[in-house]
Amino acid sequence: MSYSKTQAQTGSGSTLAIGATPTVIDEVRNIKWTGYQFKTDDATNMNSTAEEFITTILSPGELSFDMNRVNVDAGQSAYMTAFLAGTVSSFTLTLPKALLTSPPQTVSGDKFVFNGLPIQADLSLEPTKTDVVSCKIKISGAVTFTAGS
């Protein structure tokens, strides 16, 4: 197959939801998932000709996001409730449908479901700016990935 154009997409249309019955957290401005990686251990031994490493356990990392503060949003309220209680909650990150791929995703985009501990809720208030809450979730346990269709 020859190259005709990029199949890249933007995050526009992605949703982040909280709860076993997912409630969308509205007005999320950006999402960044960091630290999703395997831990490693040095397996170098007397027979090695260079350093050798093995993977040990998967670290699911952290998901951070900013949201416009909307005091009547059920998803934002659920996040703050979990944050203030210090409790682990279920989260669902759904990406937009990838329409340029072959075959295109026409029903749903890729989905990541995980448990996480809300560990940050920083509020930024300025007279000439939108009220923004900067949030962070420490992912706890395995992440379930479902490819879009």
Helix-residue proportion: under 10%
Average pLDDT level: 94
CATH topology: Pnp Oxidase, Chain A
**E-strand count:** 9
Give the overall silhouette: globular
Question: In sequence order, what are the helices and strands, one letter per element?
Answer: EEEEEEHEEE
Structural class: mainly beta
Q: How can the largest sheet be summarized?
A: 7 strands, antiparallel
Give the number of helices. 1
Unreliable sequence segments: none
Q: What would CATH call the architecture?
A: Roll
Q: How many domain units? A: 1
The amount of beta strand, in percent, is over 45%
What radius of gyration results from the CA coordinates?
Answer: 19 Å
Distance between the termini: 22 Å
Strand order of the largest sheet: 2-1-7-8-9-6-3
> What is the class in the CATH system?
Mainly Beta
Entry keywords:
mainly beta, two-stranded antiparallel ribbon, Pnp Oxidase, Chain A, 149 residues, 1 helix, single chain, 46% strand
Detailed description of the structure:
It is a single chain. With 149 residues, the chain is mainly beta. It has one domain: Pnp Oxidase, Chain A (Roll). The strands form two sheets. A seven-stranded antiparallel β-sheet has the order 2-1-7-8-9-6-3, with helices on one face. A hairpin with a 7-residue loop joins strand 8 and strand 9. The radius of gyration is 19 Å and the shape is globular.
Task: Record the SSE blueprint.
Blueprint: E1 15-18, E2 23-24, E3 28-34, E4 37-42, E5 53-59, E6 62-68, H1 74-85, E7 89-94, E8 111-124, E9 132-146
Antiparallel strand pairs: 1-2, 1-7, 3-6, 4-5, 6-9, 7-8, 8-9
